[in-house]
Amino acid sequence: MSALFRKMEDRPWLFLAPAVIVYAVFALWPMVDVTIVSFQKWNGLDANRQFVGLANYQYIFLQDPVFWTAFINTVIWTFLSLIFPPAIGLALAIGLNREIAGRSALRAVFYLPVIIAPIAVATMWRWMYDPFFGLFAQTLTEWGLPVPDFLGQKDTALYYVFVAYVWQQVGFSMVLFLAGLQSVDRSLVEAAQIDGAGRWKIFRHVTVPAIMPTITIVLVLSLIHSLKAFDIVYGLTGGGPAQSTQMLALWAFSQSMKAFDFGRGGAVSVVLLVITVAIVIPYLRWSMSREVHE
Amino acid sequence: MRDHLNTIRKDPLLLVLWLALICFAVIWIAPFAFIVFTSLKGNGEIMSTGPFALPTELRPDNYDVAWNRGGFSRSFFNSVFVSAVKVPLGIALSAIAAYALAKMPGRFNRLVFLLIVFGTMIPFQVMLAPIFTLVNKMGLVDSYAGLILPYLAFGVPFQVFILHSFFRGVPKELSEAALIDGAGHFTIFRRIFLPISLPILAALFILDFVATWNEFAMALVIMQDQSKWTLPLGLMSFQGQFSNEYGQLNAAIVITVLPAVLVYLIFQRYFVSGLAAGAVKG
C-alpha cells in the first residue's frame, strides 16, 4: 500500500484519474451519446442504431405538438423562476439581515423546504391540492369560496405546480442573498444615512450595486435550475392533464424511456442541452474573469 | 431581548417588518403542520375535521402500516446504503483531484479544471436516457454500482470546484516546508490539507448527503426492480397505489423527509456556510 502511495508521488494524473474517469464516462460521454442518438432511430434494445439524419429534429419541430407545448411551458416556467423565487428571496434576506428576534429560526423555516426531496414536495402538494380534503379545498370551502380543480384544469395546472416550486425554491435564493448582503459596506450605509438618504435611496444606490454579483449568480442558478425541473412535475401531474404541464426535460425522458424512441427523446435532450450550454458558457467566462480580478 | 426592544424603539418600522416575517414564516411552515397532522389522523377524521385541527384520536399506526405496505424497510436500507457509499467516496475522489489541480504542476490542469467547472452546470435530468443506455450496456441496471457511479460523476464537479478554490488559498509555505523535508504529495495532502479543510469537507458532506438522499430521476431510470428502490421511488409508488389512504400517505411522506430534515437541523451551520462558500465565491 505504501509502495503504491510512493509511486503516486508527483504524478498528478494518478491523483486526478479516479475523479476524471468517472466524470468523463458517466457525465461527458452521455452528453456525446445523446447527440449521436438524436441523429439515429433506435428503440433502446436493437443492436444496430440506424442513421436517419435530421429526421428526429424534423419530427419534433414540425410534427410533434407536445414538443412545442413543452417548449413554451419551459419558457414560461423559466421566466417565472427568474422573477418570483429571487424576488421573494431577496425581500426575506433584506428583512433577515437586521438584528431581529428569532432571526436564525426564521431563516431555518424558509430554508427547510429546500432540503426536502422535490418528489416529496410534489407528493405533499398533491395532497394539499386534493379537490376534496386537501388543505386548499378545505380552507376555501370554510371561507365559502368555490374550489377550483387545481391540477385538473388544462389552463392553470402549470401555475399551481409552479406555486409548489416557489415554496421550495425561495429559501435557496434567500440564503445566497443573505451571504451577498454581507458584502454591503456598513460604513457606506451609515454615511448615506448621515447625508439624509432615505431607505429606498440607500437600497438603490448602496445595496444593489454591492450585491450585483450575487444577483447575477442567483439569476443564473435559478435559470439553470428551472430548465431541469423534472421531479416536481413528474410527481404532481406527470405532465398532464392532456400534456398541458409537459416540460422539455420530462418530455425527453418520456420519449426515450416510455415510448422507447431514443432518437426523438435524444433530439429533445439536445435542444435543452444547447439552451443550457448557451447560458452556461458566458456565465462561466464571467465568473472566471471575476476570479482573476480578485 | 432588551437590545431588540431598543432597536425597535429607535426604528418602529422594524416591528412591522418583524411581524411581516413572522406571518410569512407561518405560511411557509403550514404545509409541514398539515402533513404531520394528517399523518396522525384516521381517514374518517381527515374527511370530517378542518385541515389544522389537531388529531383527536392519535393514529401512530399509520406509520406502521405505511412502513410495511410500502416496503419501506427495503427502500430505507437502499437509501442509507447508497448514501453511505456514495458520499464519502465522492468526497475522497474530489478532494484528491482538487489537491492535484491546485498544488501539483501539470500540463493539463487548466483544461481539466475547465471541463470540470463546465460540469457543475450541466443537469443530468437532460441525459437520463443516454445514462441508462450506458449503465445498461455495462450490465449494471438494478445494481447499486449502476446508481452510485453516475451519482459520483455528477457530484464530482461541484466538490472539486469548491475544494480547489479552498486548497489554492492555502499558503505555499505550508506545503513547501514539508516538500523540502522529503514528504511526498500524498503525505502532504493527508497530513496537512485534509485536517485544515475539515469544516469545508463537513459542509460538502452534508450538502451531498441531502442531494443523494433526495435524488429521484436517476434512480427512477436505473433502479427498475422494486427491491432496489430508494426512498423517493418508494414514496412515488406508494402515492400511486394508496393515494386514498391519506393518513398513511402522509406518514410515508414524513418517513421519506425526516432524515434529511434532521440532518439539516443538526448541521445547519455548515449548510449555510457551505452554500455561501460555493455560490458567492464562485
From TrEMBL, chain A:
Membrane topology (UniProt) = Multi-pass membrane protein
User: May I have one GO cellular component term?
Assistant: plasma membrane
State the Gene3D superfamilies in the record: MetI-like (1.10.3720.10)
Q: List the source organism.
A: Roseibium suaedae
- List, alphabetically, the CDD domains matched: TM_PBP2
Identification of the protein by name:
Carbohydrate ABC transporter membrane protein 1, CUT1 family
State the UniProt keywords alphabetically: Cell membrane, Membrane, Transmembrane, Transmembrane helix, Transport
Keyword Repressor belongs to the record: no
> Which part of the chain is the ABC transmembrane type-1 domain?
71-283
Q: List the subcellular locations.
A: Cell membrane
Family of this protein? Belongs to the binding-protein-dependent transport system permease family.
Q: What is its main location?
A: membrane
Q: Which InterPro entries match?
A: ABC_transporter_permease, MetI-like, MetI-like_sf
UniProtKB/TrEMBL annotation, chain B:
What are the residue boundaries of the ABC transmembrane type-1 domain, all occurrences included? 76-267
Q: Where is this chain primarily localised?
A: membrane
Where would you find the membrane-spanning parts of this chain?
12-37, 76-99, 111-132, 144-167, 188-211, 246-267
Instruction: Kindly give the membrane topology term recorded for this protein.
Output: Multi-pass membrane protein
**Location of the protein in the cell:** Cell inner membrane; Cell membrane
Provide GO CC annotations from the record: plasma membrane
UniProtKB keywords = Cell inner membrane, Cell membrane, Membrane, Transmembrane, Transmembrane helix, Transport
Family to which this protein belongs: Belongs to the binding-protein-dependent transport system permease family.
Q: Which PANTHER family match?
A: ABC TRANSPORTER PERMEASE PROTEIN MG189-RELATED-RELATED, SN-GLYCEROL-3-PHOSPHATE TRANSPORT SYSTEM PERMEASE PROTEIN UGPE
This chain's protein is named sn-glycerol-3-phosphate transport system permease protein UgpE
Tell me the organism. Roseibium suaedae
